[in-house]
Specification:
glutamate biosynthesis, oxidoreductase, 16 strands, 486 residues, globular, Glutamate_Synthase, Glutamate synthase subunit beta, Glut_synth_ssu1, 33% helix, five-stranded parallel β-sheet
C-alpha cells in the first residue's frame, strides 16, 4: 500500500495548464512542462490499495493501478514503468487522451475526489522515457508466420506490437502518409504532441514491425490478394465514416466534417503546409457536436484566430455531480470543461440545426437552429425558439457510424457485418473469413482509446492461437464486453 493516510492528509491536485493567452499562440501541449513530478508522489499516495480495486473494472485494460501507484509513491519509477507496461502498450497515449473511466470507478471517489490515476500514469511513462527505461523488446526467435495489420491507430499498433513480440513477422498497412491513424491526424498537437507517436514507432521498428504507408487495402491492394500473401490478417481500420447532417444548405461551401478539418491543421504542424487549406482565421466558427472531437475543433479554431467559436449540442447540459441513475462505479455523464473550453467560445445545449444559409457565391454565412426538449422520450422542437447565428465555417463533429465500406475492403474479403454495421467477430476476434481478425472500432464501433488498445491486445491473442495452436499473450477483454454503465 502507498500512504495509509494519504487520502486523509492529501487533497486532489491535477496537472497545471499554461495560461490561456500563452498557449493559444502555439500548438504545444497545454500543460506546464514538469509540473506533475513535484506533486505526483503524494497524489499516488492517496491510493488506498482497496481490497477490491474497482479501478480495474473501470479500465478495460485491467491496469494494475494500485501497484504502480505504490511504486510512484515510493519514487521507484523503473518498477512503476514495468507494472504500467504489463497491461498497456502505450500509456503515454492513454495518460494524455483517455477520459479515465478508472477514476470514475475509484473507490475513493465514492465520497471524495478520486485519485489522479491518469496524471500518475503519464508521469510514470514520461519519466520512463527520460530515464531510458523504455527499450525495444524484440522476440527471442521467429515463428515463421506472417501477419498483416490494416490500420495504424491504437488498436492496430497494439495488435502489431504484441504479435511482433510473440515472434511473428508483422507488417502494418496505413492508407495515410504517416503512421498513427486518428492519433496522428485526429488528435490536435495541443492534446498530444506527435513526438510520443514517433518514438513508439521507432521502438516497434527496432522490435521488427514493418510499416507500409500510403497503401489502402481494397484500393491499392485487393483484400483477397492480401489474405493469400499473409498467414493471418488483422483489420483495425477504425470506424471512420462520419455522421452527416442532412439538412437544407448542407451543400454550401465552408461546411466540413471534423475529420476533414482537423487533419489539415495537424499537417501544418508536420510541415506539409504553411497554412491549412481549411482555416478558421477571422471567421465565425460553429462546431456541431458536444463531444471530445468537437472540443478538438474548438481548440483548433482558437489557435487559428477565429472571430468567434460556438459549439452546439442537441442534448441538455449535463450536471456537475453524479445523477442518482449513474451511481459509482459507473462512468457518469458530467459537465466537462476541457482545455479548449477554457480558452473561450460559447457552448449551447438543447438545440438542433434546421438549415444553413449562404451568400450569392455559395458560401455558408448563417446557421439556423431551434431549441429542443425531451417529451415522452422523444426529442421535440420548442415553437418560437428559432434563431440564426453567424457561421462562416461549420465543422460536423457528431461521431462516426462505422467502418469504411466505400474502399471495397469489406466486400473483397467477404466479411459479415453485425446488426450495427460493424464487422462481426467471434470470441477470438475472428471474422467469418478464415485467418482474418478484427480489432478496435471496426468491430466494436466508435469507442475510446483505452478500449482500442485492449481490443488490439485481445485480438493478438486470437491471432497467435490461430497461428500456433496456443498463446500466452494476454486478452484483457472479450468482444462482447462493454463499459461499466447502467
Amino acid at each position: 500500500m502507498a500512504d495509509p493516510k494519504g487520502f486523509l492528509t492529501t487533497g486532489r491536485e491535477v496537472a497545471k495548464t499554461r495560461p490561456v493567452a500563452e498557449r493559444v499562440k502555439d500548438w504545444n501541449e497545454v500543460y506546464v512542462p514538469g509540473s506533475l513530478l513535484p506533486i505526483i508522489s503524494k497524489q499516488a499516495g492517496r491510493c488506498m490499495d482497496c481490497g477490491i480495486p474497482f479501478c480495474h473494472n473501470g479500465c478495460p485494460l485491467g491496469n494494475l493501478i494500485p501497484e504502480w501507484n505504490d511504486y510512484a509513491y515510493r519514487e521507484d519509477w523503473s518498477a512503476a514503468s514495468e507494472r504500467l507496461h504489463a497491461t498497456n502498450n502505450f500509456p503515454e497515449f492513454t495518460g494524455r487522451l483517455c477520459p479515465a473511466p478508472c477514476e470514475a470507478a475509484c473507490v475513493l471517489g465514492i465520497n471524495q475526489p478520486a485519485v489522479t490515476i491518469k496524471n500518475v500514469e503519464v508521469s510514470i511513462i514520461d519519466k520512463a522515457w527520460d530515464s531510458g527505461d523504455v527499450t525495444p523488446q524484440p522476440p527471442e526467435r521467429l515463428s515463421g508466420k506472417t501477419v498483416a495489420v490494416i490500420g495504424s491507430g491504437p488498436a492496430g499498433l497494439a495488435a502489431a506490437q504484441q504479435l511482433t513480440r510473440a515472434g511473428h513477422t508483422v507488417a502494418v498497412y496505413e492508407r495515410a502518409d504517416r503512421i498513427g491513424g486518428l492519433l496522428r491526424y485526429g488528435i490536435p498537437e495541443f492534446k498530444m504532441e506527435k513526438v510520443h507517436i514517433n518514438r513508439r514507432i521507432e521502438q516497434m521498428r527496432a522490435e521488427g514491425t514493418k510499416f507500409r504507408t500510403e497503401i489502402e487495402i481494397g484500393v491499392d491492394i485487393d483484400a483477397a490478394k492480401l489474405r493469400r500473401r499473409y498467414d493471418a490478417v488483422v483489420i483495425a481500420a477504425g470506424a471512420t465514416v462520419s455522421r452527416d447532417l442532412p439538412v437544407p444548405g448542407r451543400e454550401l461551401k465552408g461546411i466540413h466534417f471534423a475529420m476533414e478539418y482537423l487533419p489539415l491543421a495537424n499537417k501544418v504542424q508536420e510541415g506539409d503546409f504553411v497554412a491549412p487549406p481549411i482555416t478558421a482565421e477571422g471567421k465565425h466558427v460553429v462546431v456541431i457536436g458536444g463531444g471530445d472531437t468537437g472540443a478538438d475543433c474548438v481548440g483548433t479554431a482558437h489557435r487559428q484566430g477565429a472571430a468567434s467559436v460556438t459549439q452546439l449540442e442537441i442534448m441538455p447540459r449535463p450536471g456537475e455531480e453524479r445523477n442518482a441513475n449513474q451511481p459509482w462505479p459507473t462512468f457518469p455523464m458530467l459537465y466537462k470543461v476541457t482545455s479548449a473550453h477554457e480558452e473561450g467560445g460559447e457552448r449551447v445545449y438543447s438545440v438542433s440545426t434546421t438549415h444553413f444559409e449562404g451568400d450569392e457565391d455559395g458560401n455558408v454565412q448563417f446557421l439556423h437552429l431551434v431549441e429542443v426538449e425531451f417529451k415522452d422520450g422523444k426529442l421535440e422542437q420548442k415553437p418560437g425558439t428559432e434563431r440564426k447565428i453567424p457561421a462562416q465555417l461549420v465543422t460536423l463533429a457528431m461521431g462516426f457510424t462505422g467502418t469504411d465500406q466505400a474502399n471495397g475492403l469489406v466486400q473483397q474479403f467477404g466479411l459479415e457485418l453485425d446488426e450495427r454495421g460493424n464487422i462481426a467477430r467471434d470470441a477470438d476476434f475472428a471474422t467469418n473469413v478464415d485467418g482474418v481478425f478484427v480489432a478496435g472500432d471496426a468491430g466494436r464501433g466508435q469507442s475510446l482509446i483505452v478500449w482500442a488498445i485492449a481490443e488490439g491486445r485481445s485480438a493478438a491473442r486470437g491471432v497467435d492461437r490461430y497461428l500456433t495452436g496456443a498463446s500466452e499473450l494476454p486478452a484483457p477483454i472479450r468482444p462482447t464486453d462493454r463499459a461499466l454503465t447502467v
